[in-house]
């Protein structure tokens, strides 16, 4: 199959005005700067990808995210709401130096070519933002895109003082960038107004334009171009959707905020509060120096590791007695985890999603009402919990040096007390269910949490020290250090892309990939001598990054005709006898050189006027 892909990226079919004829020009362009802006709005969950990975809440895991034994939803959930706009992400790379060194993910080097007939090729490397494993970061992927574009049907807007012609511009097909862009009409009776005829908030949110800078007021030679487009996720643009046409873009949130001053300030008020070595996840900070500035605050998303610490509880007031972690020094410790984890294990998971934990449902299936079933499982919970904490806290009721049957006998009486408490809490929770302020699942979760905390209180009345908040986890007990998880937040994206390019010469390429050559070959140009155009053919036995350049006999490079990936096949490149600045070369001998992967070759040609 003969595939024509004229390499004259962003060369334009320039239309004419009654006052001025703007010449049709072909050429090859090199990007010298770019600014990309991403706006993300939280969206509803729409796709299968969302149900698998999507969430609106931040979580933290212990001992780490990769090997989590326990994952905790952070206070204040949900942390993202549908319709919220995340902070805008800007990628400003305004100079060639910034393109080379501005991103840690690699250098950016992009060439673009278009034909007057609307064909387009983009090759090289380009900045992007991607979410991988629920972590969003800048990337510099390789680009090799054959597409099409349109300048629309309107005459360009001419600035005769600055020698600039502004065209509507739209990529119509692309395997990488937005599709179905609408070229804006800037002139004539159909001139369009942003915000009314096109732009965000209208029916044409995907649109573009290009400013073409000419070398002089004849508008015959292009010096450079500046492109701008806006595009949003959707089926038409092919951005941020899956094969079923469902929105599936996620923002990977990988950090939180916190502080290292809250516990220091509270310790001054209550010396029983221990000060750890890690920050408090979600802490807002305290003014330790009394200078009206919160100290040691870590802004999002820079906090990765920290403690869960809550001295306020549901009522939002300090030390009022409703704090779930008050018996473990207000820290989420190993002892607290044992209590929470044991109640979850005893109740069981909710595999069928009916709002009733499976073990509880099994007990109820034996004929017990919900309150009696809770009572029974609360006793089971206690009998499973206290031996764990007894060992962890070196707890020995009869002081015989062992956790033994005598200890079990002394502790068994508390099972009934735990069950009675669970029944009382459940009754109050079910009142809220009847009023419609809670679901049954929420009532059961709240009951389980309350029972776990109450059990820690009972252990305290038994003379057992359950507060293990004076040290980090040591393999037995202590404060747990959590890692903030990467989470996938469903988003809707708007991209604003603004690259600028220098004209680096005129060239076009025809590729025949129907027959794969047996070996590499660079052929004599034809015709030779030539005036003003000639063709250079090269055979590639395999796909390779290929660069074709032209040099004068002084060893100075005058133009790059192509720089980018080419597939295996025969490729014929047209050369119009112009240099990087678009100026016609003088008569004489020139050298053309091709480098294609491991292959390279050089030949001579003569321009004769």
UniProtKB/TrEMBL annotation:
Residues 532-597 form the FlgD/Vpr Ig-like domain. InterPro entries: FlgD/Vpr_Ig-like, Secre_tail. This is FlgD/Vpr Ig-like domain-containing protein. It comes from marine metagenome.
């Amino acid at each position: 199959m003969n595939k024509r892909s004229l390499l004259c990226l962003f060369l334009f079919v320039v239309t004419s005005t009654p006052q001025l004829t703007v010449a049709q020009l072909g050429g090859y362009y090199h990007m010298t700067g770019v600014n990309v802006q991403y706006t993300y709005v939280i969206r509803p969950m729409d796709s299968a990808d969302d149900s698998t990975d999507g969430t609106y809440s931040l979580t933290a895991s212990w001992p780490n995210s990769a090997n989590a034994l326990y994952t905790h939803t952070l206070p204040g959930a949900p942390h993202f709401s549908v319709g919220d706009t995340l902070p805008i992400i800007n990628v400003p790379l305004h100079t060639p130096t910034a393109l080379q060194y501005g991103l840690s993910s690699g250098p950016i080097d992009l060439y673009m070519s278009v034909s007057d007939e609307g064909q387009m090729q983009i090759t090289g490397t380009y900045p992007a933002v991607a979410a991988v494993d629920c972590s969003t970061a800048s990337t510099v992927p390789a680009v090799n895109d054959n597409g099409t574009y349109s300048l629309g049907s309107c005459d360009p807007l001419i600035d005769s003082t600055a020698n600039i012609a502004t065209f509507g511009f739209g990529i119509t097909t692309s395997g990488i960038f937005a599709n179905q862009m609408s070229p804006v009409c800037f002139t004539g009776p159909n001139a369009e107004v942003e915000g009314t005829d096109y732009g965000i908030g209208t029916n044409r949110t995907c649109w573009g334009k290009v400013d073409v800078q000419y070398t002089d007021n004849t508008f015959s030679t292009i010096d450079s171009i500046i492109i701008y487009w806006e595009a949003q996720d959707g089926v038409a643009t092919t951005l941020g959707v899956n094969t079923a046409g469902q929105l599936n873009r996620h923002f990977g949130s990988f950090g939180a905020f916190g502080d290292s001053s809250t516990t220091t300030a509270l310790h001054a008020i209550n010396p029983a509060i221990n000060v750890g070595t890690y920050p408090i996840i979600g802490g807002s900070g305290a003014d330790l120096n009394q200078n009206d500035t919160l100290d040691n605050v870590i802004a999002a998303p820079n906090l990765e590791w920290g403690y869960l610490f809550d001295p306020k509880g549901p009522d939002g007031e300090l030390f009022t007695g409703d704090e779930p972690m008050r018996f473990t020094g207000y820290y989420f410790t190993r002892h607290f985890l044992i209590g929470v984890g044991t109640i979850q294990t005893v109740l069981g998971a909710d595999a069928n999603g009916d709002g009733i934990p499976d073990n509880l449902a099994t007990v109820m299936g034996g004929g017990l009402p919900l309150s009696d079933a809770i009572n029974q499982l609360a006793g089971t919970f206690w009998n499973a919990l206290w031996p764990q904490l007894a060992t962890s806290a070196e707890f020995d009721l009869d002081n015989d040096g062992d956790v033994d049957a005598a200890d079990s006998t002394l502790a068994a009486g508390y099972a009934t007390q735990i069950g009675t408490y669970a029944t009382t809490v459940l009754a109050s929770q079910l009142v809220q269910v009847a009023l419609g302020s809670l679901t049954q699942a929420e009532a059961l979760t709240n009951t389980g949490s309350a029972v776990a905390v109450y059990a820690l209180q009972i252990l305290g009345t038994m003379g057992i020290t359950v507060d293990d908040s004076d040290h980090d986890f040591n393999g037995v007990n202590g404060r747990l250090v959590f890692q903030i998880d990467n989470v996938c937040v469903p988003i809707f994206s708007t991209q604003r892309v603004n690259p600028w390019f220098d004209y680096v010469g005129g060239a076009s390429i025809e590729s025949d990939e129907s027959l794969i050559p047996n070996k590499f070959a660079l052929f004599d140009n034809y015709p030779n001598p030539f005036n003003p155009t000639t063709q250079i053919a090269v055979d590639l036995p395999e796909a390779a990054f290929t660069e074709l350049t032209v040099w004068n006999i002084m060893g100075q490079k005058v133009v790059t005709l192509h720089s980018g990936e080419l597939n295996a096949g025969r490729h014929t490149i047209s050369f119009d006898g112009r240099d990087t600045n678009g100026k016609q070369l003088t008569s004489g001998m020139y050298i053309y050189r091709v480098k294609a992967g491991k292959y390279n070759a050089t030949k001579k040609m003569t321009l004769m006027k």
